[in-house]
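A protein record pairs a chain with a discrete description of its three-dimensional fold. The shape at a given residue is found from the number at the same position. Here is what such a record looks like in full:
>
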Amino acid sequence: MDEILTEKALALPGVYKTEQWGGAHVFKIGTAADFKMFAILRPGANRLTVKAASAETRAMLIEVGVAEAHAHLPRGNWMVLLLGRLEQEDAIERLEASYIAVFPGLPKRVRESLGDG
């Protein structure tokens, strides 16, 4: 599923990937100077960190056992999806929802350059 999630993330407008924190694939929207992170994938770990659209969505996903709270990102509705417990389409949907949740936080000029004008 790692390859599919990477492909889907990179197909979103303005997204690029960096490697940080010991090989984690960090997906960002924007430019090198003005960006927002929206997903972290550690290849082979079966875990995808994303931002939930709301605290209620995050709580529900944690309650049903397909996500965990993120230890290093305790605020802002970040969570770790347990990919082995999710269908591929559900994981893609959460990845895209994270992109949508993070996008408004970009500087206006960056949003406009990506078609949000």
